[in-house]
């Protein structure tokens, strides 16, 4: 029997679903403070990679600057993106405060690390216009 060829390795299969869901997430610390150093970013990535793993998701890309981080997450349809975001922000805030208490206390005070808002954009696959055209051109049953 020949091996099965899958044209897109990002397409995952479950018992009753075929999916490829990606989200671009951007988080900023409270008051958009410049809290991220290379060491803090590295630790943040490690923590977020583990959180994604616990949700059955994959952190495909991670990067950031002194005042924000970007994530590209590949997640299954069984995961509510808002729950994943809540865990990413909650767990990372706790771990970063534990690992870098003096540094973080210089920039942030109180219990909050992340701003309560975030950016989430769906990405991957065909451009939206192409999907709209495809659906528009489907035949209606007679």
UniProtKB/TrEMBL annotation:
GO terms for biological process: DNA transposition. Residues 18-138 form the Transposase IS200-like domain. Pfam families: Y1_Tnp. InterPro entries: Transposase_17 (IPR002686), Transposase_17_sf (IPR036515). One of its GO terms (molecular function) is DNA binding. PANTHER family: TRANSPOSASE FOR INSERTION SEQUENCE ELEMENT IS200 (PTHR33360). This is IS200/IS605 family transposase.
């Amino acid at each position: 029997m020949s091996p099965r060829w899958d044209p897109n390795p990002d397409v995952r299969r479950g018992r009753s679903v075929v999916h490829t869901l990606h989200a671009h997430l951007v988080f900023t610390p409270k008051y958009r403070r410049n809290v991220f150093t290379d060491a803090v970013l590295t630790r943040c990535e490690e923590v977020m990679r583990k959180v994604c793993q616990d949700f059955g998701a994959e952190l495909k890309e991670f990067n950031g600057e002194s005042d924000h981080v970007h994530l590209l997450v590949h997640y299954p349809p069984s995961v509510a993106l808002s729950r994943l975001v809540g865990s990413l922000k909650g767990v990372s805030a706790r771990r970063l405060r534990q690992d870098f208490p003096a540094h973080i206390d210089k920039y942030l005070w109180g219990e909050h690390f992340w701003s309560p808002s975030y950016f989430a954009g769906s990405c991957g696959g065909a451009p939206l216009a192409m999907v709209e055209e495809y659906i528009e051109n489907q035949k209606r049953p007679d």
